[in-house]
Specification:
Blueprint lengths: L12 H8 L5 H20 L4 H4 L10 H20 L4 H4 L21 H19 L7 E4 L3 E4 H27 L5
Protein name: Mini-circle protein
Pfam family, one: MST
InterPro entries: DinB/YfiT-like, MST-like
């Protein structure tokens, strides 16, 4: 099937970006796929009650709202902390802790899905502005890996966001039976 046989208007915006990137350069293609999975996670959480998005349906702390919160912190870590090399003291306290692997998903009293989605959108916009200033070949130091390229960061972020979109898909199906991207 080719682009001219797909009804682009019927697709969500992020899915249209992926189709339109079919012959694009490397960076627009990577960005389109990352945006597609960012959008997939958000779409799985929208339309549910606060109680539903906070419901624990698995033994871990994983909830739909918790996934959005976690991915917000992943955006900060990889694009601001690692790629842009913004010092931790300028980013504020990052909740990544070896002794508490669920810290980035743990919901605080009063946190709402709407606020989490707004913050996730804000962080994704910051990530896009940072990546726009770099080439995929850009190499930056990483505290554990030595060095990483923007290309590697993109692939890692696509993998992590897609994996969590799959988690969100299963959680949404458990809540109300909705399936699909």
């Amino acid at each position: 099937m080719t682009k001219d046989k797909i009804d682009l208007a019927a697709l969500p915006a992020a899915a249209r970006q992926v189709v339109e990137a079919a012959t694009a350069g490397e960076q627009p293609t990577l960005e389109a796929f990352l945006d597609f999975y960012r959008d997939a996670v958000k779409r799985k959480a929208v339309g549910l009650s606060e109680a539903d998005v906070c419901r624990r349906l698995v033994p871990s702390m994983t909830t739909l709202a918790g996934l959005v919160k976690h991915l917000r912190w992943v955006e900060v870590n990889w694009f601001q902390r690692v790629l842009a090399q913004i010092p931790d003291d300028q980013l504020g306290p990052l909740p990544f802790r070896e002794d508490d692997p669920d810290a980035t998903m743990r919901l605080e009293p009063g946190e709402t899905l709407s606020a989490l989605l707004d913050e996730y959108d804000r962080q994704c916009a910051i990530s896009r502005s940072i990546t726009a200033e770099h080439d995929p070949d850009t190499i930056v130091p990483h505290p554990e890996l030595g060095e990483v390229s923007l290309r590697w960061i993109y692939v890692h972020m696509i993998e992590e966001t897609a994996r969590h979109a799959g988690h969100a898909d299963i959680l949404r199906e458990q809540i109300d039976g909705a399936v699909g991207v």
